[in-house]
Amino acid sequence: DVYQGAKKDYISNRTMINLQAEDFAGIQGSYFYINKRVKSNCNSCGKAKPKYRTKKAKYENGISAKDLMIKLGSKKKGQLTLGYRSLDKVGNLENKNYKKLTLDTVAPKSSAKFIGDHIYKGGIHYVSDRTKLRLSAKDNLSGVQKINYVVNGKNTEYTSAIRMGDYKDLQKFQLNYSSTDNVNNQSFSKELRIKVDKLAPKLFNHYSYQGKEAQNVQLQGDKEKIFTSPVNTKLYMAAEDDIIGVKNIYFSINGGKQRAYKEPIKFTKPGTYEISISVVDRLNNKEKITSKIRVVSSNDKRIIENTKLKVDYKEKW
User: Fold this and answer.
1) Is 97 within 8 Å of 17 (Cβ atoms)?
2) What global pTM score does this model have?
3) Most buried pick, 42, 156, 234, 271, via CB within 10 A?
4) How is 226-276 classified by DSSP, letter by letter?
5) CA dist 216 → 158, 172, 207 (Å)
6) 273-316: pLDDT as tens digits
7) Residue closest to 156 by CA, chosen among 145, 165, 148
8) What does the buried/exposed string (b/e) look like for 31-51 if buried means 16 or more CB atoms within 10 Å of the residue's CB?
């Protein structure tokens, strides 16, 4: 686990450190050194130059950075200067050599963010098939090497935002993700429980006049059947969504301004009206229909001539 950055060399606790030395007389031993700062008990010393004490450890056939730090009595993380030298069998001691290293023992911190339609409820992330998932990670020392995620046992290296539409056939699934830094410290896996809602709400509507449903009829001169009802007929609308709930119902009449539906719409004047109706759930899945109604008055002869239209003509319109 060694990473050569632009200005620093990074190692992990698992990195194996080896020393090699050659000498005509043979090598008696090799040693590592580290300077440890000594705490001062002097309260009146001011900004005196800090004092250091050298700790030495004998090298024995390869050693991990973690074990070396234990031998040297150091808990230091981050940048350190490691000294080393060898002694031959006739007592000649090599001058100290130094290697600047950065000890990275901490895994990256991973995070996830949904882009677009998203609601978190009851431990589940509800999304639409338009939603994307962005994974990211931060590492303060050696830097992030990669991020991986697993769905249905398939391990994938993350390269760009994950489209939830790619998993719409699963509907409900689990995604685990983790990150690895450049010296192979790996973060703990994090879990996301996700449900992809690709269904729009169900929309219900009907026309009613004093409890009577409007009739879908074809009167004289009509090219098609049209819902027909007297003046003061009302249009009732409702919707249901079993997964995440209905957000709103909207309507517009004859291409006019779209408005939110709050109460039944009352038609007070004769005429033919085309109503565009749309319903949206909390994840912005939409359903849209168009409905047409003909509102007539009591003196419309076509009503009287059509026996299929069930209207109480005694009512005062």
Assistant:
1) no
2) 0.77
3) 234
4) EEEEETTEEEEEEEE-SSS-EEEEEEEETT---EE--S-EEE-S-EEEEEE
5) 56, 41, 10
6) 999 999 999 999 999 999 999 998 866 665 544 434 444 433 33
7) 148
8) bbbbbeeeeeeeeeeeeeeee
The answer to whether residue 185 scores a pLDDT higher than 80 is: yes
Burial class (CB in 10 A: 0-12, 13-18, 19+), 93: exposed
Cα–Cα distances (Å) from 200 to 223, 245, 284, in that order, read: 32, 10, 8
- The residue with tokens 């509507």 is 205
Please tell me the distance from the alpha carbon of residue 53 to that of residue 72, in angstroms, as a whole number.
Answer: 11
Tokens 């994950």 — which residue? 162
CA distance 8 to 10: 6
Question: What does DSSP assign to residue 188?
Answer: P
Find out whether 313 and 304 touch, Cβ atoms under 8 Å.
Answer: yes
| Distant-in-sequence, close-in-space partners of 300: CB < 8 Å, separation ≥ 6 | 270
Alpha carbon distance 111, 24 (integer Å): 57
Residue 280 in tokens: 């949206």
Task: Pull the structure tokens for residue 167.
Answer: 């998993």
